[in-house]
C-alpha cells in the first residue's frame, strides 16, 4: 500500500504533498539558521530541506519537487535527507512557505469552503506516507509536529466524505484519528488513485 502511494502519479497538486512533508520533516531551530547562512555565503552544493528515515517518503518528496528544482536524496537507507541545490535553497523555501500558507488558508480558514478533491487527496497521500497505514483495529492515528496540519487533514477528509477528528491522546499538537475503517479504506483508495 505505501509503495503504491509513493510510486503513484504526481497529480495536479504536487506542492500540496511537498509542503506537508516539508512542514513535518524540515530542519528547525539552530540548524535551519545555519542552513540559511550556508545558502547565502556558500557551502555544500546541496542543502537539506527535509530529513526522513523512510525511503518511500524521500523518493516521493524528490518526485514532487522536480517541478521546482533538481532535488537529491543523500545519506543512507533509513537515515537520509532530501537536498536542493544551494543556489535554489531560498527559492524552494519561499515556494514551500507560500504554498503552505495558501493550503493552510484553503483548508483551515472558516470563511472558505474548500472543494478541491485532488488537493485533499494529495494531502492525504503524503499523510499516509509520512505516518504509515492503519492500526490493527483498522483505525488510523497520526500526529504532526505542526498544529495546522491536523486541521488541514481533518478538513481534507471531510471534503473526501470521510470523518477525521482531533486525537487528544497524543502528546504535542492535537493528532488526527480516523476511527472508522471504511473511512480509512476510502481515503487510501482515493489517495492511491
Supply database-style keywords.
single chain; 193 residues; alpha+beta; three-stranded antiparallel beta sheet; 8 helices; 53% helix; 15% strand
Strand order of the largest sheet: 1-3-2
- Based on CA atoms alone, the radius of gyration comes out at 16 Å
% residues in beta strands: 15-25%
Shape: globular
Mean pLDDT: 89
State the total count of DSSP E strands: 6
Kindly name the structural category: alpha+beta
Estimated helix fraction: 40-55%
N-to-C series of helices and strands: HHHEHEEHHEHEEH
Briefly, what is this?
The chain is α+β, with helices and mostly antiparallel strands and 193 residues long. Helices cover 53% and strands 15% of the residues.
What does this structure look like?
There is one protein chain. With 193 residues, the protein is α+β, with helices and mostly antiparallel strands. The chain has 8 helices and 6 strands, in the order H-H-H-E-H-E-E-H-H-E-H-E-E-H. The strands form 2 sheets. Strands 1-3-2 form a 3-stranded antiparallel β-sheet. Strands 4-6-5 form a 3-stranded antiparallel β-sheet. A hairpin with a 7-residue loop joins strand 5 (165-167) and strand 6 (175-178). The longest helix is centred in the middle third of the chain and has 20 residues, at 89-108. The protein is globular. The N and C termini lie close together (11 Å).
Amino acid at each position: 500500500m505505501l509503495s503504491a502511494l509513493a510510486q503513484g502519479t504526481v497529480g495536479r497538486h504536487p506542492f500540496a504533498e511537498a509542503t506537508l512533508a516539508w512542514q513535518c520533516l524540515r530542519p528547525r531551530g539552530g540548524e535551519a539558521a545555519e542552513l540559511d547562512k550556508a545558502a547565502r555565503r556558500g557551502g555544500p552544493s546541496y542543502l537539506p530541506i527535509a530529513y526522513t528515515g523512510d525511503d518511500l517518503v524521500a523518493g516521493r518528496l524528490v518526485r514532487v519537487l522536480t517541478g521546482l528544482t533538481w532535488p537529491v536524496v543523500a545519506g543512507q537507507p533509513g537515515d537520509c535527507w532530501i537536498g536542493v541545490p544551494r543556489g535554489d535553497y531560498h527559492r524552494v523555501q519561499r515556494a514551500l512557505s507560500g504554498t503552505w500558507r495558501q493550503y493552510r488558508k484553503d483548508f483551515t480558514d472558516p470563511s472558505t469552503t474548500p472543494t478541491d478533491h485532488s488537493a485533499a487527496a494529495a494531502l492525504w497521500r503524503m499523510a499516509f506516507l509520512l505516518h504509515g497505514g492503519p492500526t490493527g483495529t483498522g483505525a488510523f492515528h497520526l500526529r504532526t509536529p505542526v498544529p495546522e496540519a491536523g486541521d488541514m487533514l481533518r478538513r481534507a477528509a471531510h471534503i473526501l466524505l470521510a470523518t477525521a477528528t482531533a486525537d487528544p491522546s497524543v502528546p504535542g499538537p492535537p493528532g488526527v484519528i480516523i476511527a472508522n475503517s471504511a473511512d480509512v479504506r476510502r481515503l487510501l483508495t482515493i489517495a492511491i488513485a
